[in-house]
Amino acid sequence: MQKALQLGEITLSNDAPMVVVGGLNVLETESLALETADAFSSICNKLGIPYIFKASFDKANRSSKDAYRGPGLEKGLQILDAVKQKYKVPLLTDVHAPEQAAPVAEIVDIIQLPAFLSRQTDLVVAMAETQATINIKKAQFLAPAEMQHIINKFLEAGNEKLMLCERGSSFGYNNLVVDMLGFPILKSFSYPVLFDVTHALQMPGARADSADGRRKDVTALAKSGIAQGIAGLFLEAHPQPNKALCDGPCALPLDKLEPFLQQLKALDDLVKSQEPIDTA
Question: Is the keyword Transferase in the record (predicted)?
């Protein structure tokens, strides 16, 4: 029995039609955030896909001290609130320190536990206490089954409004792989599962001072994940990926968003129209 989370009119469940959590890797300017939200919102409305806007106000784990991190908490929340007010969509963003959880929860509907920080107990407890919906990123160094420990921390802290997000596993140097057999393990916990396809395209540390990426493979990888029958897709897009201030090599070009989502929705509809086959 798969659990369902309700965000207004949006239902998040592995049994429900796919939801798109999409936007920018990191907030750059308010105008860019609004442009990106406008594209996602209008295309998702056209295709009948429930939509949640995502962007980070701070990227605290950049490869270089001099790399762009974002506008920070105060300015970032102002930009996110501007998106919410204009497009009437739920918001998702990540926090990096316990003291950020409460102010972020006042604006944002879903708080994200970053992959690298997913075992930080103080951060987990602070996030749980907000009673916001939580998106738990699976760390690159954790096996899917180890997500149970993080789930337990949230439950013990009094929050069961949880989502799980796959983003790939470390494989040797400068590489990530996505094990499709990991999705059934994540689904076995019954919480909605998202697939962060653009971060799964990363090649960590493969450039002199930043990650590289494999943007050309985004459609193939996204189709593989959606074929597992999950709650939705998490992705980042940019009107000019080569000029993006963070993770441009992984970002989907914004002008390719509509045909991309059109194909993914068709696949999700097909997968969820079929009865599962028990081959155990």
Answer: yes
